[in-house]
Amino acid sequence: MAVEALMEDLEQKARRRKLLISILVVVVAIHVGAGVVAGIFVVARYFTVPPAQFVVQKDIRLPAREREHKMNMAEFDANTPKPTFNDKLQSMRPSAFALPDLPKLPLDQMLPLDPSAIVSDAVSNMVGAAGMGSGGQGTGGMGGTGTGFSFFGIQSNAKRILLLFDVSTSVVNKANKAGIPLSKIKEETLNTINGLTPNSRFGMIQFTQNYKPFQGELVPATDQNKQAAKTWVEQEWVETGSMGASGQKVVSNSKGFFGVLERAAQMQPDVIFVISDASFQWRAEGDISNIPWDKLRDLATGSLQGPEGCTIHFIGFEMKPDDRREAGVLARRTKGKVRELK
C-alpha cells in the first residue's frame, strides 16, 4: 500500500509539472505572438499613407500699429497748408539800375574784444548803486548772459521761480539803511519777471507773520501774467510793515516763515529767493518765539524739495551772525547761496 501511494504521489507531481510547463509555453507563445503582431502594425505605419486631418486653429493677429500710424501721419500731412509759389522772377539781362554801394562799417567793431575792458565796464556799472548796476539792467531780466535770469546778482537757470518778500518793518528799515529802498526792490522784481521766458512759471508771496500770495500757484510768464504781476506789485504791496488777517487775500498764519515755506512746497518751485533779515518768529504755543532752524532745514530738505528739487537763496539785510550762519547752512544743503546787501 505504501508503494502504491508513493507511485500515485509521483504521478501527480509529474502531471503538475507538465501542466506548469504547458502553461508557461502557452504564455510565452501568446507574448511572442502579440509582439510579432505589434511589430507588424508598427512597421505597417511607415508604409501606409496617414489619413487627412482637418484641424481648426485659432489665428491670433496683433493690430497693425505701423499701418495705423502711417495713416495718421498721412492725415496730418494732408492738413498742412499747400505750398505757394514765392519765387521771384529773375532775369540775366542788364537792367537800367544798379545796387547801391555797401555802407562803410566801423573797423573797431571787427577787432577782437578786450576782456579787461569788459570787466572794467561791469565794475563801473556796479559802483554807486549798491552793487545792483545802473538802471536796474545789471541784475534784472536775463542778467545779460542770455541764459537763465538773475535776481539781485544771484544767477539761476530754474523754470519755476518763487519770490518770498519779508515786508516787516524791521526789514524795510534795514533795506532803506542799506541804500535799497522799497522802490528799488519793486523795480528789481519787475525787471526779473519781465525777463522770464514764456516757458517759465513764477510766483510771489509777501509775509510778516501772515502772508499774501500773488496767485495760489505758479503762473506762466506770459505778457498778461507779467502785467498782472506789475499791477499787484504797484497796488497790493504791503508798505506799513504789518499784515492783518482781515486784509484782502491775506492768509492767517501762526507759523510765520515756516507756514510760508509749507505753502511754497505746494507750489513746487525749482528755486526760491527769500528777501529778509533771516530773523523769523512764530506763535508755536501762543507766545512769540524764534523758529528753530532745524525745523526750517528739515522742511527745506524734505517736502519742499519735490520730484525736481528746490534751491533756496537768501538775500538779507543786516543779518545777525547766528542767523546768517544758519541761513548759510540751509542754503548750502539746497545748493543755494546767501548774499547780504549792505
CATH level-1 class of the domain at 149-340: Alpha Beta
Mean pLDDT: 79
| Unreliable stretches | 116-146
Record field, number of beta strands: 11
Feature tags:
13% strand, Rossmann fold, 7-stranded mixed sheet, 342 residues, elongated, alpha/beta, 9 helices
Account of the 3D structure:
By secondary structure, the protein is an alpha/beta fold. It has a domain at 149-340: von Willebrand factor, type A domain (Rossmann fold, 3-Layer(aba) Sandwich). It is 40% helix and 13% strand. It contains nine helices and eleven strands. The strands form three sheets. Strands 3, 4, 5, 6, 7, 10 and 11 form a seven-stranded mixed beta sheet that branches. It has a two-stranded antiparallel ribbon with strand order 1-2. The protein has a two-stranded antiparallel ribbon with strand order 8-9. Strand 10 (311-316), helix 9 and strand 11 form a beta-alpha-beta unit. Helix 5 runs antiparallel to helix 6 and helix 8 packs parallel to helix 9 (321-333). The N and C termini lie far apart (149 Å). 25% of the residues are buried.
